[in-house]
Amino acid sequence: MGKKGILLVNLGTPDSPSTSDVRKYLKEFLMDGRVIDIHPIPRTLLVKGIIVPFRGPKSAKLYQKIWHDRLGSPLMHYSKLQQKLLQQRLGPGYQVELAMRYQNPSIELALNNLRSSGVSSIRVIALFPQYASASTGSVYQKVMAILGKWPVIPDVSFVNHFYDNELMIEAFADNGAACKPQGYDHVLFSFHGVPQRHLAKSGCTLNHCNGESHCCEHLTGKNEFCYAAQCYQTARLIAERLGLLKTEYSVSFQSRLGNDPWIQPYTSQTITDLARAGKKRVLVFCPAFVSDCLETIYEIQVEGQETFLNAGGELLQLVPSLNDSPVWIEALSGLASQGQLKAEYETETI
For tag attachment on the chain, is the N or C end more exposed, with fewer CB atoms within 10 Å? Predict the structure, then answer.
């Protein structure tokens, strides 16, 4: 038997913070039919004719603010660390490869590395705790498209989500506890947003998931595949571990793109509302991201802090993401070996 292959996939990052590389990244990202889910012709006109030409230079300036001279992109840096530490944790019986859904290293390159090594199985872990069509779904569609061209396809398994993984929750809670949440007036859990129509396509109605009925605040059999419901469950589990009362925290959604309605409440408005309500110190978790990146380091810690101060607040503090947390690496180890351990157990009990 060959090694067991593990494929870690994160969203992606430009090769550099230059405008040309950022435009290249944005073009590949936004042309994905699961990200902007409209007809290909208007999507092409929108992305290549409007968004990329105008957003590219602006995004490049933001990437330049968080780019490390030696380490490069924070998301890439922490993703590589996770790959290295997971490889060490799993040992020589496994081969761990890292890929990005968009740009480099590509999923095809990583899969070919596993293929060349003769792995007997491949377990794919999209590094998004909550399942969304535009993130996890896109990764798996790409993986299956590539594997479908192979003459021999090894045993393949996917981790659909891990929003309630006990060790992941523990890792986020540990990072939050180190920030001493009792010294803040409120705790905010900010998740990456998605358009409301994405929730409708997942089998939920807009009335069910747009926040008006608060149905997403309770995970049930009817909404178990709802991205928003999974986000609320993650927040609830972290809050419970920290001993927070329901009145001491709230949930919001960030990174909105375009004018279509996205999941509400929006983080930017929530931050403003908290400051106007007299909350002077707010602690912010971003539990949709396992690595610190532009959305956490800049969108929350810089832009969010500025919004908070302008509205009358005093301190908006970002809780570091999981990054190279030993507890998180242990959680990844469990996700990576779970399918194989189950198969071995079933074999032994036959």
Answer: C
Q: What is the model's pLDDT at position 26? A: 97
Report how far residue 277's alpha carbon sits from residue 185's, in angstroms, rounded to the nearest whole number.
11
> Can you list the residues of the chain whose pLDDT is less than 70?
202-215, 339-350
CA distance 127 to 169: 14
Alpha helices in the chain (DSSP H): 19-30, 40-46, 52-66, 74-90, 107-116, 138-147, 166-178, 196-201, 206-209, 227-242, 267-276, 305-310, 326-349
The tally of domains found in the chain comes to 2
CA distance 47 to 137: 21
Which pLDDT belongs to residue 225?
85
Q: How far is CA 42 from CA 32, 37, 253, 307, in A?
A: 13, 10, 26, 34
121 with 201, same domain: the answer is no
Residue 350 pLDDT? 39
Q: How far apart are CA 18 and CA 74, in angstroms?
A: 15
DSSP state of 71: T
Provide the domain limits for residue 127: 4-162+326-349
- The reply to whether 312 and 330 lie within a common domain is no
Residues 83 and 179: their CA atoms lie apart, in Å, by 26
Query: Would you say residue 27 lies in a domain?
Result: yes
Residue 223's CB is within 10 A of a number of other CB atoms, namely 23
Give the residue from 242, 208, 257, 255 showing the smallest Cα distance to 228.
208
Residues 307 and 335 in one domain: no
* DSSP code, position 72: B
pLDDT value at residue 203? 61
Per-residue model confidence (pLDDT) at position 267: 98
Q: Do 208 and 151 share a structural domain?
A: no
CATH number at residue 206: 3.40.50.1400
Q: What residues form DSSP beta bridges with 251?
A: 189
CB of 30 closer than 8 Å to CB of 51: yes
Peptide bond into 105 cis (omega under 30): yes
- SS3 state of residue 259: coil
> Could you tell me the pTM of the whole model?
0.92
